[in-house]
Amino acid sequence: MTAKEYLLRAYRIDQRINSKIEQLTMLRGLSKIMARAAGGRQTEGIAEKMAELEAGINEDIETLVDFKQETANAIKKISDAGQQTLLELRYLCYKPWERIAEEMNYSVDNVFRMHRRALESVAAVLTLQQNQL
Predict the structure, then answer these.
(1) C-alpha to C-alpha distance for 53 and 126, rounded to whole angstroms
(2) Reduced to 3 states, what is the DSSP secondary structure of residue 96?
(3) Which of 14, 42, 40, 17 is nearest to 28 (CA)?
(4) d(CA 84, CA 75)
(5) 52-72 burial by CB neighbour count: b if 16+ within 10 A, else e?
């Protein structure tokens, strides 16, 4: 796994959580429509699907929290404070490059250069962690 793939794990799970929440919202709406048509009773199939989605969301949230903590710990091991800030803004707060550049008072090009160096730093941290296992 590359440093970038490692850092993107939390973002991907966050996307999956949001997708499941959207699906759950749609099912709730469908359930209400069907309940009205069925005289106020909720259909079992939809209730089961909603329970499955809720359980999946809860599991994904636990994984997200674990990945974010693990990512934050790896970022803390980088000695350059600017790189730490950039990585936190991008991979823990999911901010776009333009916003990061604005908040750090850099040009977007400078942020990209710093990001490349930060990824190298993360790769070094990950290699060190693997060697310690």
Answers:
(1) 33
(2) coil
(3) 42
(4) 6
(5) ebeeebeebeeebeebbeebe
